[in-house]
Amino acid sequence: MKIKRYFAPDIRQAMxxxxxxQGPDAVILSNRSVDGGVEIVAARDFDEQAMMxxxxxxxxxxxxxxxESQRRxxxxxxxxxxxxxxxxxxxxxxxxxxxxxxxxxxxxxAAAKTSExxxxxxxxxxxxxxxxxxxxxxxxxxxxxxxxxxTTPRAPAVAAETGIIPAHALxxxxxxxxxxxxALDGHFAETAWDSLTRTAPARLDLLRRLNLLGFTRSISLxxxxxxxxxxxxxxxxxxxxxxxxxxxxxxxxxxxxYGGIVALVGPTGVGxxxxxxxxxxxxxxxxxxxxxxxxxxxxxxxxxxxxLTTYGRLLDVPVRAVSNAEELRHTLNGxxxxxxxxxxxxxxxxxxxxxxEQFATLRQDDxxxxxxxVLSAASQARAMRxxxxxxxxxxxxxxxxxxxxxxxxxxxxxxxxxxxxLPVSMYTDGQQVPEDLHQARTHLLLERCFSxxxxxxxxxxxxxxxxxxxxxxxxxxx
Length: 478
Known about the structure:
eight-stranded mixed beta sheet
């Protein structure tokens, strides 16, 4: 029998090493986790009976070494047998000769059974004391009545012996659990939908419409809870609009009147440069070109400077490019006579490492720069929340919503502004410069938000079941 210990980073590699070196008939004796992986002890030509014999406690001492009390107890036992008229059968001692397997008593004649019983009694404990009891084995007839254990190939059961569930079995189990969960979710959604339809139809319709407009779960439930148990949907819907009008943060900015040093920051693709051009054009129409200057701090995007230079040429205003805080400070000092200085920045993802560099450039104590966060209204709520958190270090005075013409679901943007208490100062709804730039007004924003839903008020096809909406709509507590 060949026993060997294997080390590997994981159980699969260890099992592969065992199969390659010892073959498919190898038997796993043990496995455990160690530093750096797993340890497996495997054997080839494994003889379980031989190992059990090696592990068996040593046999009782020979007769020659027995104590006087042991001999006396055996003589008393023999005399008792002789007095009963059944002389003991001569047989080799257990310590002197190997034990031969005895046939099952059920297959011997009655006389043989009696003889076997007496023979078995001869091998009973010799009353040598407590220590001898622990070394004695079970009587021969009790062991022989048991059927011989069936030997099965050990190699196929390697995974079971090691306690490791195969990866494919785990994947199948996970897929089955996912199917069961989807089935249960669908059943519960239908049940909850039916319950809400019967008990609170106005609340259900309110949550459904807010969800379709893109409002987040927390804002939708908050509005529904504020409406209480209103049974008339029209009253609940109007009340919801009134609540939103009081919660949506809107600021009346004096940027176009008084100017200042303004930087537009925000993620990639939200329209910062185009928005800057719209603000510049609107300010030029009101105050003339001599009061305006443009700066680009976008040194990453190809042709970013060329794009802003084109706008500057059209507006007849100076344009400068900077790459660090010192250059920005020098340029601002050169534009000391300008009423409005607009700074265009590079668009960066919320987790971009270069965002810290941009922050260090713009956030200087000796430069009174006001930051405006530019957000796309067409973005998802999660993306907008990430952007607000990432650019919070710039301490934006307000936000500018762009691309309102590209979405009918303004609920995500409004939810983000309400949850983060970030006021909106302006919004854009097209590519026209400067016509598509507007000062934020609460009633205009809400009218734009609810107009799409008002057009679909007569569409009852979407009200037939819980599907098509987020799961929380059908699970909302009444």
